[in-house]
Design goal:
Layout: H1 26-56, H2 73-80, H3 82-114, H4 120-132, H5 135-145, H6 152-159, H7 173-201, H8 205-213, H9 218-246, H10 250-255, H11 267-277, H12 281-289, H13 292-312
Helix pairs in contact: 1-12, 2-12, 3-7, 3-9, 4-7, 7-9, 9-13, 11-12
Length: about 325
């Protein structure tokens, strides 16, 4: 059949034009979706933080709207305070000791839970219980465990003949600090375990298989294969732990309220005692803000370490 010469064939198809919708504007859609989170952070974090800075340079007190400016007087006063100095040392000791124990226990628990054995799911659920339990309820249970008369630890040691005298956990500063650290480690190591488990799941399986083929033992595989690969995520886990531990109020206040004789105060509990219980909002805010520059420096250094470790891997 011959093609008629007067018929023009258009090679280009007709283009259908449509109006741009919100879904097509990714920049605007992204801003709209981020707005609720941004407003939440500004209202619940940004404004209280700005108010705390303002209060720390004033002589504000509870029950009064007056904000008389005193400059750095609150900071100068607390630095000379022996109770504040003790709280700084307690905070450093509490944070460093807790994070060492949490990291070691999390790595050990993650290696155990990563293996194949019967009841692994139930074991993972049980390990997560301390993190999921309400801190107030858990503190009530631990208060009974460390009770000066009914302490299950003391009675157990007595039964096995390992204790001659009696341990007054909340009556001795050293024992009270041991109790606080123990409860905090019990509460926070499940979270670190989950993070380490997630990191172990991301390790390529062929690396583990190559190590097994080469005859690497468990310890050699742990220290020469797994831990170097886990270093970035473990660093982030420690960073979260340092920030959470150094700013945590609940464990210390619920267990000892800073006692005995204000010997177990950390900066957060001392700030609460001075600012809320003692009605000196200026000093309380100054104590609460004291560690902020240190935490910023620590966070920056640890994030750089994690970045370098990740690039090195």
């Amino acid at each position: 059949m011959a093609l008629r010469k007067d018929v023009r064939v258009d090679a280009a198809p007709a283009v259908a034009f449509r109006h741009a919708t919100l879904a097509d504007r990714e920049d605007l859609l992204g801003r709209i979706m981020l707005t609720p989170a941004l407003v939440y952070v500004i209202v619940l974090v940004g404004l209280p933080f700005a108010l705390a800075i303002l209060l720390s340079f004033s002589a504000a007190s509870a029950g009064s709207l007056a904000l008389s400016w005193v400059g750095v007087e609150n900071f100068a006063t607390i630095i000379r305070d022996s109770q504040f100095q003790r709280a700084v040392l307690n905070t450093v000791f509490f944070t460093v000791t807790s994070q060492i124990l949490v990291t070691v226990m999390a790595v050990a628990a993650a290696n155990v839970l990563d293996a194949a054995f019967a009841g692994k799911r139930a074991m993972r659920f049980l390990i997560l219980l301390p993190w999921a339990a309400p801190v107030s309820l858990a503190s009530m249970a631990w208060t009974w465990i460390f009770d000066s008369t009914f302490s299950v630890i003391n009675w157990t040691l007595k039964v096995f003949g390992l204790l001659e005298g009696w341990l007054y956990w909340f009556g001795d500063p050293a024992l009270a600090m041991i109790a606080i650290i123990s409860v905090h480690v019990w509460r926070t190591f499940p979270f670190a375990t989950v993070i380490v488990l997630a990191g172990m799941a991301a390790i390529p399986q062929d690396i583990n298989e190559a190590a097994l083929i080469d005859g690497a033992s468990f310890w050699r595989k742990l220290f020469q294969v797994n831990l170097p690969l886990l270093l970035p995520i473990v660093t982030v886990s420690v960073l979260f732990g340092v920030v959470f531990t150094s700013t945590d109020l609940s464990i210390v206040w619920l267990l000892t309220r800073g006692g005995p004789y204000n010997s177990t105060h950390v900066l957060s509990s001392l700030a609460f005692q001075r600012g809320i219980m003692g009605a000196d909002l200026g000093q309380g805010a100054a104590i609460a803000l004291f560690l902020l520059p240190v935490l910023v420096i620590v966070a920056t250094v640890m994030l750089r370490m994690a970045r370098r470790a990740e690039v090195g891997v």
